[in-house]
Predict the structure.
Amino acid sequence: MPGGAVFSAPMVQSVSESMELTSGERALINYWFRHVWELAWPLYPGIILTVALADIPLLSFISCTWPGVLMMFFLGWFFFLRPLQARTSNEEGAVSSQRAKIVLVMKEGMPLLIAIIGAVGLESLLPVLAPKFSFEWGVIAALFFAVICMMVQNRLGLKFVMAVLGKKSLWTMLSVIAAIFVFKDIMQAAGVVDAMAGAAGDGIALVAAAAFLPFLVGMVAGINVAFVGATFPLLLALLATLGMRDQTIPYLVLATFFGFTGVMISPLHICFVLTCEFFGAEPARTWRRLVSPCVCFALFGCLLFWLLLTLLPG
Protein backbone atom coordinates (compact mmCIF):
# COMPACT_ATOMS: atom_id res chain seq x y z
CA MET A 1 0.00 0.00 0.00
CA PRO A 2 1.67 3.28 -1.07
CA GLY A 3 2.10 5.53 1.94
CA GLY A 4 1.28 2.63 4.27
CA ALA A 5 3.59 4.01 6.95
CA VAL A 6 0.76 6.36 7.90
CA PHE A 7 -1.22 3.31 8.99
CA SER A 8 1.43 2.23 11.50
CA ALA A 9 2.44 5.73 12.61
CA PRO A 10 -0.40 6.18 15.15
CA MET A 11 0.44 2.81 16.70
CA VAL A 12 4.11 3.75 17.02
CA GLN A 13 3.05 7.04 18.56
CA SER A 14 0.82 5.26 21.09
CA VAL A 15 3.39 2.61 22.06
CA SER A 16 6.20 5.14 22.48
CA GLU A 17 4.29 7.69 24.55
CA SER A 18 6.08 6.67 27.77
CA MET A 19 9.48 6.55 26.07
CA GLU A 20 11.95 9.40 25.82
CA LEU A 21 12.06 9.53 22.02
CA THR A 22 12.41 12.47 19.70
CA SER A 23 10.06 12.97 16.77
CA GLY A 24 12.88 12.01 14.40
CA GLU A 25 13.52 8.75 16.22
CA ARG A 26 9.85 7.84 16.09
CA ALA A 27 9.78 8.66 12.38
CA LEU A 28 12.86 6.51 11.67
CA ILE A 29 11.52 3.52 13.60
CA ASN A 30 8.15 3.71 11.90
CA TYR A 31 9.64 4.20 8.42
CA TRP A 32 12.32 1.53 8.64
CA PHE A 33 10.35 -1.30 10.21
CA ARG A 34 7.40 -0.61 7.92
CA HIS A 35 9.54 -1.91 5.02
CA VAL A 36 11.43 -4.86 6.50
CA TRP A 37 9.32 -7.44 4.66
CA GLU A 38 9.62 -6.08 1.12
CA LEU A 39 12.47 -8.40 0.10
CA ALA A 40 10.49 -11.62 0.64
CA TRP A 41 6.78 -10.87 1.07
CA PRO A 42 5.13 -12.86 -1.75
CA LEU A 43 2.32 -10.36 -2.36
CA TYR A 44 4.44 -7.26 -2.89
CA PRO A 45 3.86 -5.97 -6.47
CA GLY A 46 7.60 -5.57 -7.01
CA ILE A 47 8.27 -9.24 -6.27
CA ILE A 48 5.34 -10.48 -8.34
CA LEU A 49 6.43 -8.32 -11.26
CA THR A 50 10.04 -9.52 -10.94
CA VAL A 51 9.21 -13.23 -11.15
CA ALA A 52 6.71 -12.57 -13.95
CA LEU A 53 9.28 -10.71 -16.05
CA ALA A 54 11.97 -13.32 -15.40
CA ASP A 55 9.57 -16.26 -15.71
CA ILE A 56 10.95 -17.92 -12.59
CA PRO A 57 9.09 -19.57 -9.67
CA LEU A 58 8.10 -17.24 -6.88
CA LEU A 59 9.60 -19.53 -4.24
CA SER A 60 12.90 -19.74 -6.11
CA PHE A 61 13.27 -15.98 -5.89
CA ILE A 62 12.16 -15.31 -2.31
CA SER A 63 14.19 -18.30 -1.09
CA CYS A 64 17.23 -16.24 -2.10
CA THR A 65 16.07 -12.81 -0.92
CA TRP A 66 14.79 -13.73 2.57
CA PRO A 67 18.15 -12.96 4.28
CA GLY A 68 17.42 -9.35 3.40
CA VAL A 69 14.50 -9.41 5.84
CA LEU A 70 16.76 -10.53 8.69
CA MET A 71 19.33 -7.90 7.76
CA MET A 72 16.66 -5.19 7.76
CA PHE A 73 15.64 -6.20 11.28
CA PHE A 74 19.26 -6.28 12.44
CA LEU A 75 20.14 -2.88 10.92
CA GLY A 76 16.96 -1.35 12.34
CA TRP A 77 17.88 -2.63 15.79
CA PHE A 78 21.55 -1.63 15.54
CA PHE A 79 21.08 1.90 14.20
CA PHE A 80 17.70 2.92 15.62
CA LEU A 81 16.65 0.78 18.60
CA ARG A 82 19.93 -0.07 20.29
CA PRO A 83 20.89 3.58 21.02
CA LEU A 84 17.53 4.10 22.71
CA GLN A 85 17.83 1.29 25.23
CA ALA A 86 19.98 3.28 27.64
CA ARG A 87 17.50 6.14 27.98
CA THR A 88 14.03 4.73 27.36
CA SER A 89 11.68 4.69 30.31
CA ASN A 90 11.80 1.64 32.57
CA GLU A 91 8.18 2.01 33.44
CA GLU A 92 6.16 -0.86 32.11
CA GLY A 93 2.80 -0.13 30.67
CA ALA A 94 -0.32 -1.71 32.04
CA VAL A 95 -0.75 -5.23 30.77
CA SER A 96 -4.22 -6.10 29.72
CA SER A 97 -5.62 -9.01 31.68
CA GLN A 98 -7.67 -10.09 28.72
CA ARG A 99 -5.63 -11.98 26.17
CA ALA A 100 -6.60 -11.99 22.54
CA LYS A 101 -8.50 -15.06 21.59
CA ILE A 102 -6.65 -17.11 19.03
CA VAL A 103 -9.85 -18.14 17.28
CA LEU A 104 -10.91 -14.51 16.86
CA VAL A 105 -7.50 -13.48 15.57
CA MET A 106 -7.50 -16.32 13.03
CA LYS A 107 -11.00 -15.37 11.92
CA GLU A 108 -10.17 -11.71 11.39
CA GLY A 109 -6.92 -12.59 9.65
CA MET A 110 -8.45 -15.23 7.40
CA PRO A 111 -8.37 -13.10 4.20
CA LEU A 112 -4.67 -12.44 4.68
CA LEU A 113 -3.94 -16.11 5.40
CA ILE A 114 -5.86 -17.20 2.31
CA ALA A 115 -3.98 -14.71 0.13
CA ILE A 116 -0.49 -15.59 1.39
CA ILE A 117 -0.77 -19.34 1.93
CA GLY A 118 -2.93 -19.76 -1.16
CA ALA A 119 -0.57 -17.78 -3.38
CA VAL A 120 2.56 -19.63 -2.29
CA GLY A 121 0.80 -23.02 -2.20
CA LEU A 122 -0.87 -22.76 -5.59
CA GLU A 123 2.31 -21.37 -7.11
CA SER A 124 4.06 -24.56 -5.97
CA LEU A 125 1.27 -26.95 -6.97
CA LEU A 126 0.42 -25.57 -10.43
CA PRO A 127 3.63 -26.80 -12.14
CA VAL A 128 2.85 -30.29 -10.81
CA LEU A 129 -0.92 -30.48 -11.22
CA ALA A 130 -1.41 -28.16 -14.19
CA PRO A 131 1.91 -27.41 -15.91
CA LYS A 132 0.15 -25.57 -18.75
CA PHE A 133 -0.90 -22.77 -16.38
CA SER A 134 1.55 -20.09 -15.27
CA PHE A 135 2.07 -19.32 -11.58
CA GLU A 136 0.21 -16.00 -11.91
CA TRP A 137 -3.08 -17.90 -12.04
CA GLY A 138 -2.36 -19.33 -8.59
CA VAL A 139 -1.77 -15.86 -7.18
CA ILE A 140 -4.91 -14.54 -8.89
CA ALA A 141 -7.01 -17.41 -7.54
CA ALA A 142 -5.69 -16.93 -3.99
CA LEU A 143 -6.37 -13.19 -4.08
CA PHE A 144 -9.85 -13.79 -5.53
CA PHE A 145 -10.84 -16.11 -2.71
CA ALA A 146 -9.28 -13.72 -0.17
CA VAL A 147 -11.45 -10.91 -1.54
CA ILE A 148 -14.55 -13.13 -1.35
CA CYS A 149 -13.72 -14.00 2.26
CA MET A 150 -13.26 -10.33 3.11
CA MET A 151 -16.55 -9.38 1.49
CA VAL A 152 -18.42 -12.08 3.40
CA GLN A 153 -16.85 -11.11 6.73
CA ASN A 154 -17.63 -7.42 6.28
CA ARG A 155 -20.96 -7.92 4.47
CA LEU A 156 -19.86 -5.97 1.43
CA GLY A 157 -22.08 -6.01 -1.63
CA LEU A 158 -21.68 -5.62 -5.37
CA LYS A 159 -22.00 -1.85 -5.06
CA PHE A 160 -18.79 -1.72 -3.02
CA VAL A 161 -16.94 -3.86 -5.60
CA MET A 162 -18.06 -1.62 -8.46
CA ALA A 163 -16.87 1.44 -6.54
CA VAL A 164 -13.44 -0.12 -6.09
CA LEU A 165 -13.24 -1.16 -9.75
CA GLY A 166 -14.13 2.38 -10.75
CA LYS A 167 -11.17 3.94 -8.96
CA LYS A 168 -8.71 5.68 -11.24
CA SER A 169 -5.69 4.53 -9.21
CA LEU A 170 -6.50 0.86 -9.90
CA TRP A 171 -6.55 1.27 -13.66
CA THR A 172 -3.47 3.48 -13.56
CA MET A 173 -1.53 0.71 -11.81
CA LEU A 174 -2.75 -1.89 -14.32
CA SER A 175 -1.74 0.39 -17.18
CA VAL A 176 1.75 0.78 -15.71
CA ILE A 177 2.17 -3.00 -15.47
CA ALA A 178 0.96 -3.48 -19.06
CA ALA A 179 3.34 -0.76 -20.27
CA ILE A 180 6.27 -2.48 -18.55
CA PHE A 181 5.75 -5.70 -20.50
CA VAL A 182 5.32 -3.75 -23.77
CA PHE A 183 8.53 -1.88 -22.98
CA LYS A 184 10.34 -5.17 -22.41
CA ASP A 185 9.26 -6.66 -25.76
CA ILE A 186 9.95 -3.50 -27.78
CA MET A 187 13.40 -3.09 -26.27
CA GLN A 188 14.30 -6.67 -27.20
CA ALA A 189 12.89 -6.33 -30.72
CA ALA A 190 14.73 -3.05 -31.33
CA GLY A 191 18.11 -4.48 -30.37
CA VAL A 192 18.70 -1.92 -27.61
CA VAL A 193 20.47 -4.45 -25.41
CA ASP A 194 22.95 -5.51 -28.09
CA ALA A 195 23.76 -1.87 -28.87
CA MET A 196 24.26 -1.02 -25.21
CA ALA A 197 26.49 -4.02 -24.57
CA GLY A 198 28.58 -3.25 -27.65
CA ALA A 199 28.98 0.44 -26.88
CA ALA A 200 29.71 0.24 -23.15
CA GLY A 201 31.31 -3.17 -22.90
CA ASP A 202 29.65 -6.27 -21.54
CA GLY A 203 30.92 -5.94 -17.99
CA ILE A 204 30.12 -2.25 -17.62
CA ALA A 205 26.64 -2.68 -19.08
CA LEU A 206 25.90 -5.58 -16.75
CA VAL A 207 27.07 -3.73 -13.63
CA ALA A 208 25.03 -0.69 -14.64
CA ALA A 209 21.89 -2.74 -15.26
CA ALA A 210 22.23 -4.79 -12.06
CA ALA A 211 23.30 -2.13 -9.57
CA PHE A 212 23.56 1.48 -10.67
CA LEU A 213 20.34 1.84 -12.68
CA PRO A 214 18.01 0.10 -10.17
CA PHE A 215 19.49 2.24 -7.38
CA LEU A 216 19.10 5.44 -9.37
CA VAL A 217 15.53 4.73 -10.49
CA GLY A 218 14.56 3.58 -7.00
CA MET A 219 15.95 6.76 -5.46
CA VAL A 220 14.25 9.04 -7.97
CA ALA A 221 10.89 7.25 -7.99
CA GLY A 222 10.75 6.04 -4.38
CA ILE A 223 8.73 2.93 -5.25
CA ASN A 224 9.72 -0.68 -5.99
CA VAL A 225 7.56 -1.20 -9.06
CA ALA A 226 9.35 1.68 -10.78
CA PHE A 227 12.88 0.28 -10.63
CA VAL A 228 11.66 -3.24 -11.43
CA GLY A 229 9.71 -2.11 -14.47
CA ALA A 230 12.31 0.34 -15.78
CA THR A 231 15.51 -1.67 -15.32
CA PHE A 232 14.78 -5.39 -14.97
CA PRO A 233 13.75 -5.91 -18.62
CA LEU A 234 17.14 -4.47 -19.61
CA LEU A 235 18.98 -6.67 -17.10
CA LEU A 236 17.16 -9.83 -18.19
CA ALA A 237 17.73 -9.12 -21.86
CA LEU A 238 21.39 -8.38 -21.23
CA LEU A 239 21.86 -11.67 -19.36
CA ALA A 240 20.26 -13.51 -22.27
CA THR A 241 22.46 -11.70 -24.81
CA LEU A 242 25.62 -12.58 -22.87
CA GLY A 243 24.56 -16.21 -22.47
CA MET A 244 24.23 -15.89 -18.69
CA ARG A 245 20.66 -17.05 -18.14
CA ASP A 246 21.84 -19.50 -15.49
CA GLN A 247 22.89 -16.50 -13.36
CA THR A 248 19.52 -14.76 -13.60
CA ILE A 249 18.50 -15.16 -9.95
CA PRO A 250 21.79 -13.88 -8.42
CA TYR A 251 21.73 -10.80 -10.64
CA LEU A 252 18.05 -10.20 -9.91
CA VAL A 253 18.82 -10.42 -6.20
CA LEU A 254 21.64 -7.87 -6.58
CA ALA A 255 19.39 -5.54 -8.57
CA THR A 256 16.59 -5.92 -6.03
CA PHE A 257 18.87 -5.04 -3.12
CA PHE A 258 20.28 -1.99 -4.87
CA GLY A 259 16.90 -0.85 -6.15
CA PHE A 260 15.35 -1.27 -2.70
CA THR A 261 18.27 0.63 -1.16
CA GLY A 262 17.53 3.49 -3.54
CA VAL A 263 13.86 3.41 -2.53
CA MET A 264 14.69 3.45 1.19
CA ILE A 265 17.19 6.28 0.90
CA SER A 266 14.98 8.33 -1.38
CA PRO A 267 13.77 11.62 0.17
CA LEU A 268 10.87 11.39 -2.28
CA HIS A 269 9.60 8.11 -0.84
CA ILE A 270 5.99 8.81 0.05
CA CYS A 271 6.26 6.81 3.29
CA PHE A 272 9.23 8.90 4.40
CA VAL A 273 7.50 12.17 3.57
CA LEU A 274 4.25 11.24 5.31
CA THR A 275 6.03 9.76 8.35
CA CYS A 276 8.08 12.92 8.91
CA GLU A 277 4.93 14.98 8.49
CA PHE A 278 2.98 12.86 10.98
CA PHE A 279 5.62 13.01 13.72
CA GLY A 280 6.69 16.57 12.96
CA ALA A 281 10.26 15.45 12.27
CA GLU A 282 12.76 17.51 10.31
CA PRO A 283 13.19 15.64 6.98
CA ALA A 284 16.83 16.58 6.33
CA ARG A 285 18.09 15.59 9.78
CA THR A 286 16.01 12.40 9.76
CA TRP A 287 17.17 11.46 6.27
CA ARG A 288 20.86 11.71 7.20
CA ARG A 289 20.43 8.89 9.71
CA LEU A 290 19.20 6.60 6.92
CA VAL A 291 22.43 6.76 4.96
CA SER A 292 24.56 4.41 7.09
CA PRO A 293 22.03 1.54 7.40
CA CYS A 294 21.20 1.83 3.69
CA VAL A 295 24.88 1.59 2.72
CA CYS A 296 25.27 -1.47 4.97
CA PHE A 297 22.20 -3.03 3.37
CA ALA A 298 23.59 -2.54 -0.14
CA LEU A 299 26.91 -4.07 0.90
CA PHE A 300 25.05 -7.05 2.34
CA GLY A 301 23.34 -7.40 -1.04
CA CYS A 302 26.75 -7.59 -2.69
CA LEU A 303 27.82 -10.30 -0.26
CA LEU A 304 24.64 -12.28 -0.86
CA PHE A 305 25.12 -11.89 -4.62
CA TRP A 306 28.63 -13.36 -4.36
CA LEU A 307 27.38 -16.25 -2.23
CA LEU A 308 24.59 -17.05 -4.69
CA LEU A 309 27.00 -17.02 -7.63
CA THR A 310 29.23 -19.40 -5.69
CA LEU A 311 26.59 -21.76 -4.30
CA LEU A 312 23.90 -21.94 -6.95
CA PRO A 313 24.48 -24.44 -9.76
CA GLY A 314 25.53 -22.68 -12.91
